[in-house]
Design a protein that fits this description.
Zinc Finger, Delta Prime, domain 3; alpha/beta; disordered N terminus; 5-stranded parallel sheet; single chain; 5 strands; 16 helices; Rossmann fold
């Protein structure tokens, strides 16, 4: 991805502009919790908001993008900005580069977690308690620029219990001129004591036409990339109307990186859909073997969307996520045992609540796909 495209992608999405305009930067709360569906631009919105709160420009819309503070922010060197994100999300930070496990200096938006050599170790999906503690310790020192200090944490629901408690203490008694920008894809997974100490900001996904129009404008900046409108609209529906998730999916397809985690998950999701379309004839052991290396959260989301569409068609509605599979859903709807389908849906919801549990992905997939097959037991499978 070239630098120009990276810069444009990290601007606030147009459908979140009204939310941005509703905020008073001169009378900003000490903590906000931005929540909404994954992949709709919350993170990019939060980064731009942090930049605005640190901007030192006068008599200009913020961020002015011209002052020294904005320049430092753009180069990931602002001393009063700290971003706490897991290793898997650090690539989302603007212009930040992480090539070693050496302690990252203040303002580089991270702290060394003390795990030693990285080598080929697997990236962590949680924010380490050591990172939270070091960030809190840093807050005891006054801001370097004499203005605001901004702490961005994403995704908030990934915090372990001990990390959440450490953060809670600072939210209860925030240091002067310190602003916490917290982000969550799943507000229900954020502990109530943290929610109660933040101003909640709901980020909504765009109307379908606006989201697709934005995607088309973004894709024009990709050299050599060709995507037809049918593919864009199909993936848009599959991703639940989350434009940034769709964009990442299309970029992964364009780059053809078979080792990329997103590419693996996209391919696995398609295999999963093909398997679930077989209904009671699903070869669940074979399917689990083929897809278990993908992100479990992505696979669970795919199962939920498919099951949601199947329920809708069974009850006389239309599929929301996979409209191209309407005929398949109609056929399956004649075979399902409705009570078992509803129970399977409840099981998926329970699994989503614990999707980061360190159980073997393959074992969990086998259990779920076996239950899916049972949804069709007792019916005549054609």
């Amino acid at each position: 991805m070239n630098q120009l495209f990276h810069s444009e992608k990290n601007q606030t999405a147009p459908w979140l502009t009204p939310l941005r305009e509703s905020l008073d930067l001169h009378n900003f709360p000490s903590a906000v919790l931005i929540h909404g569906q994954a992949g709709i631009g919350k993170f990019e919105f939060a980064v731009e908001l942090a930049k605005s709160l640190l901007c030192e420009g006068l008599d200009k819309p913020k961020p002015c993008k011209q002052c020294e503070a904005c320049h430092w922010f753009d180069t990931a060197n602002h001393p009063d900005f700290i971003a706490l994100v897991p290793e898997t999300h650090r690539k989302l930070l603007p212009h930040a580069v992480y090539e070693s496990d050496e302690a990252v200096k203040k303002g580089k938006a991270s702290f060394d977690d003390g795990d030693g050599d990285s080598g080929e170790k697997k990236e962590k999906k949680n924010i380490a308690i050591e990172e939270i503690r070091k960030a809190i310790e840093h807050l005891s020192i006054g801001s370097h620029r004499g203005g605001n200090r901004v702490i961005l944490i994403y995704p908030l629901e990934s915090l372990r219990h001990d990390s959440a408690n450490t953060l809670l203490k600072s939210l209860e008694e925030p240091p002067p001129h310190t602003i916490f920008i917290l982000l969550a894809d799943r507000l229900d997974r954020v502990i109530p004591t943290i929610r109660s100490r933040c101003r909640l900001l709901a980020a909504s996904r765009p109307d379908r036409s606006i989201g697709i129009q934005w995607l088309q404008s973004q894709l024009k900046n990709i050299s050599g990339a060709q995507f037809n409108d049918s593919d864009i609209e199909s993936i848009y529906d599959e991703q639940g109307g989350a434009p940034y998730s769709v964009l990442d999916s299309l970029l992964a397809r364009h780059n053809q990186d078979d080792k990329d985690e997103l590419s693996i998950s996209i391919q696995a999701s398609r295999i999963l859909l093909q398997s679930m379309s077989l209904g009671g004839r699903i070869q669940w052991l074979e399917a689990a073997e083929k897809i278990h290396k993908a992100q479990f959260s992505v696979l669970l989301a795919t199962m939920q969307r498919w099951t949601s569409d199947l329920q809708a068609v069974t009850q006389g509605g239309v599929p929301r996520y996979y409209p191209k599979h309407l005929q398949v859903f109609k056929s399956l709807s004649q075979q399902v045992q409705i009570l078992k389908l509803l129970q399977f849906w409840k099981t998926l919801v329970q699994y989503r609540r614990h999707e980061n549990h360190p159980l073997a992905t393959r074992v969990q997939l086998e259990a779920l796909l076996s239950l899916y097959q049972q949804v069709f037991e007792g019916s005549e499978v054609k």
